[in-house]
Structure formats: structure tokens, C-alpha cells
Amino acid sequence: MEKKLEELKKQILKELETAKDSQFLADLKVKYLGRKGELTNILKEVKNLAKEEKPKVGKLANEVKQELTDIFTKTERIIKQTKGTKAFDATMPGTKKKQGSLHPLTQVQYEVEEAFTKLGFSVYDGPQLESDFYNFTSLNIPEDHPARDTQDTFWLENNHLLRTHTSNLQVRMLEKHGVPFRGIFPGRVFRYEATDASHDHTFHQLEGLMVDKDINIGNLIAVMKALLSAVFQTDVDVRLRPGFFPFVEPGFELDIKCLVCEGKGCSVCKQSGWVELMPCGMVHPEVLKFGGIDPNEYSGFAFGLGLTRLVMMKYRIDDIRLLQSGDLRFLKQF
Ligand code: PHE
Questions:
Q1: What are 247-285's pLDDT values in tens digits?
Q2: Which residue has the CA at smallest separation from atom 10 of ligand 1?
Q3: Which has the least CB within 10 A, 29, 130, 238, 312?
């Protein structure tokens, strides 16, 4: 009987080698290990054996059964894993791995960076945790100036704060790099703000600063236009309004016609049809002085592009909170 078992085992293993699909394997299993299978029949015969033989043969029979069951399971797994790869077919379309994508903010940031780099601007980064001096004082906003109140601020200890705008880098850059200077500084900014469809406590700006001899408003407008056509790849209606910021003189608000509603009025443009996109202006002489630059010799312009707004316009996103939500249903669309 022991011999019979060994032979049966050999035979099963041989047949297993030819197993290519699950059906074949399942049939094979029934044939040998099933209720009326060959191995099962042998096991049934064990009880008819002589008393002294029973334990030895019984043990062996059970071992063989266990071993074969394991091999069946393993083979099944291998067949499943290699399904469809039996033969190489050069005409099959390639399989594409699922890949993540850049956040829409990052995508637009890169586009703007590219447009500015072509105009000779460099890209800089700076601290999000800032001192009162660089965020306010050096921008001609002294302590107790009411302009501080318009930027709801997250104050920290020791006169530090979460920067309320990327303008915190203006004087830092002038101090560090001197003139002539051409740079942009994209980044995250923070406001102590109640959130709704068009406000969030955390959003992104992209500051631009150009200081050189004989820089005027014409240069500012030319650069703004180059930027907008690069980002939107189409003509966008814009308007310039006077705007007040203590660190520019004269100062402007550059608005673009709302692309979400095409000027009809919606939650993004607060029903006005226009969206404030880019406050800008000529750098105030006091700011140049804070940066160690002589305002009689040099002039410049600065702008604070609302990167978050730009993304919302470009992709017609009607709720700013989606951008920070981390919601995959939103992110997978980019
Ligand atoms: N820093 C200003 C803001 O966040 C925008 C601005 C930047 C205005 C540069 C003029 C020049 O509101």
C-alpha cells in the first residue's frame, strides 16, 4: 500500500506540471482528492489493514494528502498570478500604470514660473513664519497703521506671524540680491479668515518684483499682459483700478473678467462679473530704502498674483475650499 501511495503521488505531481488553467486544476483535484478520488479511496482502505500496519500507513497517507493539497493551492495561486501572460503578444496595447498627478496649484505655479523665467525672472522661496518687520514694517506699514487691520493675521509669539502675503520677501530679496533685481516668489500665505466659497485661511500667492533703472508703469503692464496670455492661452478681459497698498505708489488692482460665469455674476466673483487677480504698483520709495536701495536712482514694480484665484479661474472651480480639501474626487480630475 505504501508503494501504491508513492506511485500515486508521483503520478499526480506529473499531471500537475501540465496544469495551465484553473479548470484543469480543479478537475485534477476532484479526480484525486475529491470524495470519490483515487487518493481518498486509498485512505478509505487503511481501516482494512492489519493492526500493526494501520498507524504507519495511516500516517503516511495523511502526509501525502496534506502535501498534495498544499501543492494544489500553490499551483492555483501561480496560475492566477500569471493569467494572461502565457505568451508575449507584441500587438497587445501597452498597460498604463495608475499614476498620481500634480496638484492644480502646482501645475499653474509651474506655468507661471515658466512664463516669467522666459522674461528673465528668477524664482525664489522664503519663510512662511515671518517677523513683523518683513511682513509689515519694511513694507511701509508701521505699527499701529490701520493697513495692518485689513490683513487678518495669525499672530505668534515674539512679534512673529504666519505671513499674510508673499510681499514679505520684497525687502528680504533686495537686501540679499541688491539691484538690478527680477524675481518671483510663489508660496503659501495665511489669513485669520472665516471661510466660504471664495475665502480660505490658507491660500497661495505669487509675488513679482522688478527693480532697475528707469522702470515705469508701461513695463509693469507689459509684464502683466505677457503673463496672462501665457497662462490662459487666450485673450482675457482685464481692467485696472486704482488700489491702495502702503508699499506701492501708485497702486492698482488688476481685475480679470470672471471666467467661471463669463461676467454674468457668480459666487466666485461675488456677483460682480470681475475678479481681483493682481494687485500691483510701483515700489514705494520707503520700501526701496528699507532694502538699502536709493529711490532716486532706482525704481521698480511689484505685483501680488493670487495664484489660488488664478487656478480657480483657469479650471472654473467655484469653491476655494476644494483646493485644500485633499478630496480625491476633486484631485483625480487634474
Ligand atoms: N501683498 C498684497 C496683498 O496680499 C498684494 C500686493 C502685492 C499689492 C504687491 C501690491 C504689490 O494684498
A1: 999 999 999 888 888 899 998 888 999 988 899 999 999
A2: 280
A3: 238
Best mutation site among 167, 277, 283, 309 for ligand 1 pocket (most ligand atoms within 8 Å of CB): 167
Judged by DSSP in three states, 242 sits in strand
From the CA of 135, how far away is ligand 1's center (Å)? 11
Lowest mean pLDDT of 69-83, 103-117, 203-217, 230-244, name the range. Answer: 69-83
User: Nearest C-alpha to atom 6 of ligand 1 is from which residue?
Assistant: 304
pLDDT confidence of residue 123: 98
Residue 122 Cα to ligand 1 midpoint, Å, equals: 19
Q: Are residues 49 and 197 in the same domain?
A: no
* Residue 130 located in a structural domain: yes
The span from the CA of 270 to the CA of 196, in Å, is 11
Residue 94 domain-assigned (yes or no)? no
CATH number for the domain including 171? 3.30.930.10
For residue 232, the number of C-alpha atoms closer than 13 Å in the C-beta half-sphere is: 22
Q: Is the pTM of this model over 0.90?
A: no
Q: How far is the CA of 245 from the centre of ligand 1 (A)?
A: 7
Of 44, 66, 81, the residue at which a domain comes to its end is 81
**How is residue 93 written as a grid cell?**
496595447
Claim to verify: residue 155 and residue 195 sit in the same structural domain: yes
* C-alpha–C-alpha distance, residues 129 and 189, integer Å: 9
Q: What domain range is 145 assigned to?
A: 104-331
